[in-house]
Specification:
single chain; alpha+beta; Sulfite Reductase Hemoprotein, domain 2; Sulfite Reductase Hemoprotein, domain 1; Alpha-Beta Plaits; 3 domains; six-stranded mixed β-sheet
């Protein structure tokens, strides 16, 4: 068959090492879905694939062993999955169009995990709605707390949940559980002064360990949701590195706007001759300069008074060139 491989990739099918055989990539925004969809993925794998399914690192499914001539039939079976997950499409019935931007990944969040400070899957879906469909190479990950189970610091954008602990001295019995937990499991931002627990606001990272450890609920999470946004983590062959803090105590709206502004920045500065028409955002920032990126990223955004914006980011890590 005479096929356009760029078109295949854009439609979220993989070009495999076996001639005439492809694999369908099925993305699950936020990594959460109804269990009944597993049966539909099984149907695709058994009817058109080789009967196996690979669970990807980006919280999706990859169905290998699909013949090129069966791609349209697979897309028909994918449509109920896409509709159930409420995923944006360029053309309904044509599968996962515009697959350059990767699936928005998330840890399990506060629906399940006691450490998580927010509903990661819900926020991931709102980001999905804002950025898809898109062909540009972006990776976004959300984690509920600084434990970072999703490895947010290896992505272009990592969103780490924070909380501003609220202290009720009338419920405190001076047991010291919160101070011990903060010292042993976090950054040591709490101390006893005159039988009262005092929080060092500059040192506190908003992890919520004090809330979890307190037996009397003297510590509670803040009603306001806060996030840390880390930028330009990446793996790969060329200069892998961990993402660095950009925003601290940020709000959801500001983070979403920064991601959207970054799409505009990439459209302006991407290397048009980049392999596959894709270039990592970090490479573009390295070439253009962080100050220019920051100007684009912060355009038109009004931040909450509490938000800390890093003036300059200096990346470290393995450096090959």
């Amino acid at each position: 068959m005479d096929l356009n491989t760029k078109k295949i990739k854009k439609n979220a099918f993989r070009v495999t090492k076996v001639r005439g055989i492809t694999a369908s990539r099925i993305r699950i925004p936020g990594g959460h879905m109804d269990a009944d969809l597993l049966g539909k993925i099984q149907e695709i794998a058994q009817k058109y694939g080789n009967g196996t399914v690979h669970i990807t690192t980006r919280q999706g499914f990859e169905v290998p062993g699909i013949k090129f001539e069966d791609m349209d039939k697979v897309n028909e079976l994918l449509q109920p999955i896409i509709e159930k997950l409420d995923i944006n499409q360029e053309i309904p019935g044509k599968g996962y169009t515009a697959a350059g931007t990767r699936n928005v990944a998330a840890c399990v969040g506060n629906n399940v995990c006691p450490y998580a400070n927010y509903n990661t899957s819900d926020f991931a879906m709102r980001i999905e709605k804002a950025i898809f469909p898109n062909d540009l190479h972006f990776k976004v990950a959300l984690t509920g707390c600084p434990n970072d189970c999703i490895k947010a610091r290896t992505h272009d954008f990592g969103i780490i949940g924070m909380t501003e602990p609220q202290y009720d001295i009338n419920r405190c019995v001076s047991c010291g559980a919160c101070v011990k937990a903060c010292k042993k499991k976090s950054v040591g931002a709490l101390e006893f002064i005159n039988y009262k627990v005092v929080r060092n606001e500059e040192k506190c990272i908003g992890c919520g360990e004090c809330v979890i450890s307190c037996p009397t609920s003297a510590w509670t999470r803040s009603k306001e949701k806060y996030y840390k946004l880390v930028l330009m983590g990446r793996s790969g062959k060329k200069n892998p590195r961990l993402a660095e803090d950009f925003l601290i105590w940020a709000d959801e709206q500001s983070i979403t706007k920064i991601i959207l502004n970054t799409y505009k920045f990439v459209e302006e500065y991407i290397d048009k001759d980049a392999p596959g028409g894709k270039e990592h955002i970090g490479y573009i920032i390295d070439r253009v300069g962080f100050e220019e990126y920051k100007k684009w990223a912060l355009e038109g955004i009004e931040f909450p008074e509490k938000t800390i914006i890093k003036e300059r980011i200096y990346w470290s890590g393995i450096h090959f060139c």
